[in-house]
């Protein structure tokens, strides 16, 4: 029946939702069982490869700014445990259960047009922001290489960093413009080498410092209140786990079922992220340096340090590729006729164009990593809450797949003109809660923050309000398909 449904969608009721040939992973249609390519270990390997990317160094350095080694380990474990668990529930489980692209699943919450707004905002903003951070890190690393090889001193905030960052963006565009095969080929080479570098950093740190010495070192900013600093470190790591939200649903879609989607997140996104970030903390504390590109030469010497920096530089490019590719698949599949008809190289430029501008503000972007994570969490924490309570509590884990693809006027998820304003109101309330507790602009916490964090209250407010608004306004009007049982006879529910 699913084969007939796929053919029907591409002709009459569902329109041209695909448009990328026979590769089911490149469009928004539900994947058939034969198209699910990952089991437990396959998905675990993918997650581990993502988790040990160069952003782990930035995460560890950011945590080391606030707390010492022991508290850093505790904050990383607590923070990632909370957020990885939540993103493992949503968007992973709905995507794995039905084989749907994660932003398609959000049509049940926000409506078809509302979900498109969420998709465009989250895909473009996250891809641009992460790409800019990684490109600037690429620039910092190569400037350090040039300084040490040629004996010069180039500014870490000057034009050279920006121009090298632009080179990283352009190089990413050239690779992505060729399509997904080139992305996979590049990442397959870089990821194992990066794992070796992380292990090497750990070994070199402990050849210079014993554990007792490392544990006694103060944070990079020892003047802050210890309790508040510890809670900020926890918040940084909650936000770090939430940063996976824009991508993990589409990855989970390729797994063979909910179990294969849920548990590998603990081996990959949690365990590997924790290990890599902890190594970053140790290096930052041992060297008293917050910039990861400045660690390699003091740890490994000039020759090995320069080689490591070059590898890390190209690893940043692969991380940009993974971010950009995930965003483009989402936009290509669910962005409507305009984006589906856009040539792949043009779509790449649309995603990476903002990053090419941001690299010319290296200090504002690179030196404000914590603020950058907050701007992600302020949206993702309430989004994740609304999606979780909607799918698990209000719908009892059941979606009507055909209605996800029908025009708004004919879908039970049509709401008002394809937009569920109450879901957006819940997300906005959660975001406002976050901002009141931790100002994302100044990064100054409120008096309540040391007892609550910011992401957790934002999550709770958004989720609670969504339940209240849905039961008070949406369900009584018969909108959203909350009270209608799945149509088993249609052959589209599982």
From TrEMBL:
Transmembrane parts of this sequence: 45-67, 73-96, 117-138, 158-177, 189-207, 227-245, 266-289, 295-321, 342-366, 372-394, 415-436, 448-469
Family of the protein in this entry: Belongs to the purine-cytosine permease (2.A.39) family.
Keywords for the protein's UniProt record, in alphabetical order: Membrane, Transmembrane, Transmembrane helix
PANTHER family (UniProt xref): NCS1 FAMILY PURINE/PYRIMIDINE TRANSPORTER, PURINE-URACIL PERMEASE NCS1
Main location: membrane
Protein's recorded name: Cytosine permease
Biased composition (Basic and acidic residues): 1-11
Domain of life: Bacteria
Annotated organism of origin: Rhodococcus jostii
Keyword Methyltransferase: no
Compartments (UniProt record): Membrane
Membrane topology (UniProt): Multi-pass membrane protein
Region (Disordered): 1-26
């Amino acid at each position: 029946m699913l084969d007939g449904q796929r053919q029907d969608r591409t002709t009459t009721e569902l329109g041209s939702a695909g448009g990328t040939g026979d590769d089911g992973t490149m469009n928004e249609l539900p994947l058939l069982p034969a198209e699910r390519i990952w089991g437990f270990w396959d998905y675990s390997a993918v997650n581990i490869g993502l988790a040990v990317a160069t952003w782990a160094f930035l995460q560890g350095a950011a945590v080391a700014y606030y707390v010492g080694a022991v508290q850093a380990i505790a904050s990383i474990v607590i923070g990632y445990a909370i957020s990885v668990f939540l993103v493992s529930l949503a968007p992973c489980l709905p995507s794995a259960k039905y084989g749907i692209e994660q932003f398609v699943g959000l049509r049940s919450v926000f409506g078809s047009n509302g979900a498109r707004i969420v998709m465009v905002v989250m895909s473009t903003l996250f891809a641009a922001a992460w790409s800019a951070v990684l490109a600037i890190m690429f620039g910092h690393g190569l400037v350090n290489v040039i300084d040490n090889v040629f004996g010069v001193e180039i500014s870490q905030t000057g034009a050279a960093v920006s121009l090298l960052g632009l080179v990283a963006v352009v190089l990413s565009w050239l690779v992505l413009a060729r399509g997904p095969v080139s992305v996979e080929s590049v990442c397959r080479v870089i990821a194992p080498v990066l794992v070796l570098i992380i292990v090497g950093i750990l070994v070199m740190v402990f050849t210079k410092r014993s554990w007792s010495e490392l544990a006694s070192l103060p944070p990079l900013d020892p003047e802050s209140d210890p309790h508040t600093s510890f809670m900020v470190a926890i918040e940084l790591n909650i936000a770090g786990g939430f940063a996976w939200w824009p991508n993990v649903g589409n990855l989970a879609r390729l797994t063979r079922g909910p179990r294969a989607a849920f548990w590998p997140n603990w081996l990959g996104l949690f365990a590997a992220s924790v290990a890599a970030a902890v190594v970053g903390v140790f290096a930052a504390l041992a060297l008293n340096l917050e910039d990861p590109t400045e660690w390699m030469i003091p740890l490994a010497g000039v020759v090995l340090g320069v080689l490591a920096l070059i590898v890390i530089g190209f690893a940043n490019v692969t991380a940009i590729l993974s971010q950009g590719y995930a965003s483009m698949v989402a936009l290509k599949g669910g962005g409507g006729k305009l984006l589906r008809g856009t040539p792949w190289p043009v779509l790449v430029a649309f995603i990476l164009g903002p990053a090419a501008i941001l690299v010319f503000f290296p200090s504002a972007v690179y030196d404000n990593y914590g603020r950058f994570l907050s701007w992600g969490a302020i949206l993702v924490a309430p989004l994740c809450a609304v999606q979780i309570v909607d799918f698990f509590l209000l719908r009892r884990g059941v979606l009507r797949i055909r209605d996800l693809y029908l025009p708004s006027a004919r879908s039970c998820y049509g709401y008002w003109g394809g937009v569920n304003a109450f879901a957006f109101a819940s997300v906005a309330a959660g975001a406002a809660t976050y901002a009141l507790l931790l100002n994302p602009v100044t990064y100054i916490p409120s008096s309540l923050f040391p007892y609550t964090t910011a992401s957790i209250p934002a999550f709770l407010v958004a989720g609670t309000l969504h339940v209240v608004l849905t039961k008070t306004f949406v369900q009584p009007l018969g909108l959203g398909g909350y009270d209608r049982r799945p149509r088993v006879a249609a052959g589209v529910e599982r």
